[in-house]
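Researcher: Please translate sequence to structure tokens.
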Amino acid sequence: MTTHSHADMLPKGTLIIAGALVLFAFTATAAMRIAHVPPSASPVAMRQAVHAVPVETRNLRFTDRADGAVLIEDTDRGVTASVIEPGQKTGFIRGVMRGLARERRMRGIGDQPPFTLSLWPDGELSLTDTVTGRSIEMTAFGSTNRAAFMALLPPQGPVS
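Model: Translation complete:
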């Protein structure tokens, strides 16, 4: 029967480095708490602080059709805002809505309540679930993905 020591399993230097990283993490966290450094504010909190009002909003309902398309309805105007046909290059919209729909299903909420798409004065674009309050900032996903949702806002008419 052979015996071996656990001391041979990890080099001493590796254990010292791991311990130093843990100590650094605790020290940095404690320093932030003691210094009362506030966490970075979310866009939603920053807008609430300055009482920002959206430049444009649209209440949208997303419904899956039997043929695989997604029907996007403007619930305020009673019109179709867009239809995403199967195979269309709008996977980002489908992905965002799949995540929001999953959260609603977990809470026992159907697909009838609309989502609010808002364009803010600073150019940010957000999609908010009117039932759960969850808000997704579209600008965080890049200009192409932001443009997919931007196209769902009604076209701006000429300024007179």
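Researcher: Any highlights?
Model: The chain has a mean pLDDT of 83.
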